[in-house]
Each structure stands twice: as structure tokens, then as C-alpha cells.
């Protein structure tokens, strides 16, 4: 079969105008991008996390590779190892411990019933009905048992997401120059706008990753010391749990020291339980509120309202990684609104100057016509 000559295609007239072809090309690109995002939606957090960690570790990268001249691949592998050791392994280990304890309580609901009855005796107020509570606990145990296959699937998805994140980080660092040049080439913004967006990303990461880690670390240490002083079992474990819980807005560490205080009250340790609840409400919650706002303002110059609303928005849409993505989205929205204001102002000034020049030309030509 003979191939079709290329001259034949050039001889056929295309039915679309140049503008129509341009619009169809843009629509095709948007459609394909939407299709890819829809297909990768389950693993989108891997790419978002890779981008955030790229910003977090890039100062190290610049200091070691660009300034000291260390081997690019060795530094990249070192960053990936630090990511796994500092972030992935602790998170996975803590999740496994929590799941094991939840499953243990679900298999023996009588322990929870005994604890509730002791709490009722301690406070002198009956707030449970034995039949209803027993039924609720049995239903909860059934639901937890039904979660086991989902937990196994989630663990597999977690490993896949971590693998994709590390793979993406590797190529972002190894091909740093091409990655940054590609952003400048394909983002529909001027260089000044890209610089503003980059500063906004860096500020949000500093305020909502590094700052949040410091806040969570302080709260975890305070919670662990408080539980240790009040003789709560496993204070070190619950201090680590409080560290991770502190990343959740509003709820956070009260999910740890609140039940601990109630537990001590149920055991007849009135002073210890009351101390935990009072110190938790007076000190630990205020440490969260004050220190979070101070660090967000100092480390990233982010308005506290943006941080608070962004945290709620991000966690609702993206899950745990939304702690960074949410404030970033709001900051980008504000930056783009400011960019639009500047661009619109420049456009209006240029348009006004063009009309002024046109009127001047027309005014100068009118006497010439009369002459």
C-alpha cells in the first residue's frame, strides 16, 4: 500500500480559521489535563507532597549542591532517606499502633463499659444506659471489624503514594534546572508574577510545615510531660500521639489529654484528672493558638485568618496534606487578585495613553487639512 503523499494534505483546505484552531487547541489541552487529573485524583496527594517537600529541602539542596559542589545524586538520595526516616516510618508506625489499640478495644468492649461506669461513679452522674451503650459498643466493634479489609487496602495505597512521592522528588531534584525552566515557560504568568507565587509558596511552607512541626512538637512534649506527672499509663506513647494529633486544627491534642483526664477521674484519681483537664484547657490549647499564629506571622508573614480558613478548607478537600495546600490556595488566590489588579491598571493606563496620543495626532492633522 502506497503512503499518502504529504502534498495532498497541504492541498486540502482546512475548514477552521486560525482563531478556531487556536481555541480548539486550548480546549483539547484543557480536556486532556482534566482527564489526567481525574485519572490520577487518587494519587494527587503524592505529587502535591513531592512539591511541598521539594520546597522544604531545596535550601539544603542549594547549600550542598550549588554552593559546596557535592554530588547531585548522593544529595538527592540522602534527602529521600531523611524523608523516609523522619516522616514516612514514624507516621506508618504510629498509625499501626493506633489501629492495633482500636482493634483491641473493639474486641473487648467490656473494658470501655467498665471505664464508663467508673467515670459515672466518679462524677456522680449517670449518663449511660447499659443496654443502649452495650448495643452501641457491639455495633462499633462490628464496624471496626469491617474496616480491616479497608485498612489493608489503605496501607497498600499508602505505600504506592509514598513510592510515587519519592519517585517524583527524585526527578524534581535531579532535573531541577529543567523543572524550573519548564515552570517559567508553561505557566501563563510574567516573571514577576511567578516570583510572587514562588515567594507565596515558600512562605506558606515555612509557616504551615516548619512552623506547624514546631507547634506540634511543643504540644506533644507538654502533653507527654503532663500525662507523666499525672501518672497516666504509657505517657511517652500518648505524647507521640499528641504530636501527630496537633496537626489537626481545632481538635488536636484535646483528643489525647481530654480522655486521659476522664480516665484518671474514672479511676478515682480526682486531683490528677482535674489537673490534666485544667492544664490542657489553660496551657496546651493556648500554646496552640498563640504559638501557631506567632510562628505563622514570623516564619511566613501569613495572616492568621488565611492560616485558619486555609487549614479548614485544605483538610476538608485534601485530607492531612491540606494543612499546607489550603493556606497555599488562599494565598495564591490573593496573589493572583493582586496581579490582576496590577495588570488591569497597566492595561487601562496603556489604553488611556493610546487614546491621548491618537487624539493628539488627530488634533494636529486637522489644521493641516484646513490649510
TrEMBL record:
InterPro entries: AI-2E-like. It is a multi-pass membrane protein. It comes from the Bacteria. Keywords: Membrane, Transmembrane, Transmembrane helix. This is AI-2E family transporter. Belongs to the autoinducer-2 exporter (AI-2E) (TC 2.A.86) family. The keyword Mitochondrion does not apply. The keyword Cell division does not apply. The chain crosses the membrane at residues 20-38, 43-62, 74-94, 155-173, 209-229, 236-257, 269-287, 308-335. It is found in: Membrane.
Amino acid at each position: 500500500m502506497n503512503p499518502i503523499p504529504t502534498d495532498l494534505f497541504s492541498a486540502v483546505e482546512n475548514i477552521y480559521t486560525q482563531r478556531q484552531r487556536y481555541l480548539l487547541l486550548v480546549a483539547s489541552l484543557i480536556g486532556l489535563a482534566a482527564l489526567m487529573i481525574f485519572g490520577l485524583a487518587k494519587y494527587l496527594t503524592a505529587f502535591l507532597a513531592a512539591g511541598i517537600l521539594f520546597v522544604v529541602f531545596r535550601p539544603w539542596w542549594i547549600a550542598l549542591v550549588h554552593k559546596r559542589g557535592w554530588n547531585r545524586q548522593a544529595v538527592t538520595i540522602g534527602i529521600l532517606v531523611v524523608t523516609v526516616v523522619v516522616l514516612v516510618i514514624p507516621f506508618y508506625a504510629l498509625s499501626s499502633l493506633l489501629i492495633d489499640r482500636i482493634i483491641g478495644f473493639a474486641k473487648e468492649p467490656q473494658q470501655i463499659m467498665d471505664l464508663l461506669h467508673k467515670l459515672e461513679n466518679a462524677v456522680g452522674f449517670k449518663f449511660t444506659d447499659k443496654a443502649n451503650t452495650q448495643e452501641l459498643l457491639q455495633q462499633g466493634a462490628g464496624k471496626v471489624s469491617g474496616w480491616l479489609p479497608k485498612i489493608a487496602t489503605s496501607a497498600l495505597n499508602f505505600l504506592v503514594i509514598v513510592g510515587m512521592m519519592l519517585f517524583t522528588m527524585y526527578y524534581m531534584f535531579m532535573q531541577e534546572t529543567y523543572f524550573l525552566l519548564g515552570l517559567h515557560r508553561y505557566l501563563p504568568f510574567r516573571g514577576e508574577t511567578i516570583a510572587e507565587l514562588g515567594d507565596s509558596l515558600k512562605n506558606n511552607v515555612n509557616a504551615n510545615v516548619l512552623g506547624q512541626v514546631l507547634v506540634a512538637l511543643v504540644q506533644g512534649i507538654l502533653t507527654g510531660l503532663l500525662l507523666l506527672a499525672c501518672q497516666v499509663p504509657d505517657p511517652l506513647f500518648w505524647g507521640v500521639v499528641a504530636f501527630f494529633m496537633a496537626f489537626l486544627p481545632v481538635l488536636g491534642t484535646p483528643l489525647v489529654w481530654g480522655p486521659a483526664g476522664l480516665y484518671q477521674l474514672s479511676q478515682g484519681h480526682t486531683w490528677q484528672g482535674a489537673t490534666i483537664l485544667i492544664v490542657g484547657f489553660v496551657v496546651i490549647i493556648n500554646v496552640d493558638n498563640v504559638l501557631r499564629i506567632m510562628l505563622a506571622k514570623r516564619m511566613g508573614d501569613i495572616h492568621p485568618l488565611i492560616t485558619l480558613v486555609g487549614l479548614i478548607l485544605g483538610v476538608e478537600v485534601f485530607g492531612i496534606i491540606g494543612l499546607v495546600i489550603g493556606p497555599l490556595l488562599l494565598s495564591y488566590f490573593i496573589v493572583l487578585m493582586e496581579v490582576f489588579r496590577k495588570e488591569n491598571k497597566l492595561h487601562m493606563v496603556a489604553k488611556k495613553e493610546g487614546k491621548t496620543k491618537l487624539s493628539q495626532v488627530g488634533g494636529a492633522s486637522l489644521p493641516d487639512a484646513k490649510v
